[in-house]
Design brief:
Blueprint (H helix, E strand, L loop, with lengths): L3 H16 L20 H12 L11 H4 L46 H6 L13 H9 L2 H10 L8 H12 L8 H6 L8 H13 L16 E3 L6 H7 L8 H4 L7 E3 L21 H13 L5 H12 L23
Antiparallel strand pairs: 1-2
């Protein structure tokens, strides 16, 4: 029986095989669903919600706590810290360019940014709210949010889970980092990359990295991949790759064990530590490991250095972020 993961992977694999060596620049605008067109009011509301720790049970954790838009879109921790100092078992993926992911979360359990935005708020370890009904009650008790929701979603009952997640997703679709040195190179500026970076670009295609990390976002267009592909006792003992079963943690199917969404390589030079459990500290180490357990290849030091140099060319231009002024809670405590 085919699983959703196997079907998505097969479709993405066919696409990536034909585009593995096609070097595409990152679009400057993200696709958006028909039922959630972006508007300035919606984006403004989404930015407020994204940065508001009052969406957590303790009033201390926001989306931005783990996905920092002032940096690389994550938190540079092996495992992110949620309410009451709790930590999960996975490293926070970057929010930058997440609009170009076909699925969200390391295990791909959310099909959209809207669906993803709903999850952490009621996760007991992350933001800890008991239910979205409680979130809605809290938001309705803040006068500034009453106004902001009405502007973004005219009509009755503007404050809702659906509208809150739509607003957050609309804001996240603005988080795009185009015009990297790589983008300029493939756009025709052949001086944008150094000789070493060009060697690294060629080496990635040669050794097979782009068989998974394909497309403009270098994320395989929704592809899932087993990791590790090639067992290695030494590396397993050191990094504990297989402790987390990936997609199978959600699907409970043995065939899904150790499958993961292929992550973007955009801005990867500034998002250490690496891999799903944040166990790898440096980018050159991550390159060596991936070549070993995914492709069965031991890369020479100069090849690793060349690939790392190329990956640094994927750091794009970050749109300036201005911290939003959040609606006040006047004369009372938010429960």
């Amino acid at each position: 029986m085919f699983t959703l993961r196997s079907i998505v992977t097969a479709l993405a694999l066919m696409s990536s095989m034909s585009a593995a060596n096609a070097w595409d620049a990152l679009p400057t605008q993200a696709p958006e669903p028909a039922d959630n067109p972006s508007t300035p009011e919606k984006i403004s509301l989404g930015q407020m919600l994204y940065h508001d720790p009052r969406l957590s049970s303790t009033g201390t954790v926001s989306c931005a706590s783990c996905h920092n838009t002032m940096l690389g879109g994550e938190d540079n921790r092996p495992n992110s810290m949620g309410v009451n100092g709790q930590t999960g078992g996975r490293s926070a993926p970057t929010v930058w360019n997440s609009a170009f992911n076909k699925v969200q979360f390391w295990d791909g359990r959310a099909a959209s940014l809207e669906e993803q935005a709903a999850g952490p708020v009621t996760n007991a370890i992350e933001m800890g709210m008991k239910s979205w009904d409680d979130v809605v009650v809290r938001l309705k008790g803040i006068e500034g949010y009453q106004t902001a929701f009405k502007h973004a979603f005219p009509g009755e009952n503007a404050i809702s889970k659906e509208n809150a997640t739509k607003a957050i997703a609309a804001y996240e679709r603005t988080l795009i980092t185009p015009n990297s040195a790589y983008d300029k190179f493939v756009g025709g500026d052949k001086s944008a990359l150094s000789a070493q970076q060009i060697r690294g670009m060629d080496k990635m295609a040669e050794v097979g990295c782009t068989s998974c990390h394909s497309g403009a976002a270098f994320n395989g267009a929704g592809m899932f991949q087993k990791f590790p592909m090639i067992p290695d006792g030494y590396l397993e003992a050191k990094y504990h790759f297989s402790k987390d079963k990936g997609v199978a943690e959600v699907s409970k199917k043995a065939d899904d064990e150790h499958f993961w969404k292929v992550p973007t390589l955009r801005n990867v030079a500034i998002t250490a530590p690496y891999l799903h459990n944040g166990s790898v500290q440096t980018l050159d180490e991550a390159v060596q490991i991936m070549a070993k357990v995914q492709l069965g290849k031991d890369l020479a030091k100069n090849d690793v250095a060349d690939i790392v140099a190329f990956l640094s060319a994927l750091t794009g231009e970050f749109p300036k972020q201005k911290m939003p002024a959040l609606p006040e809670t006047t004369g009372k405590t938010v429960n």
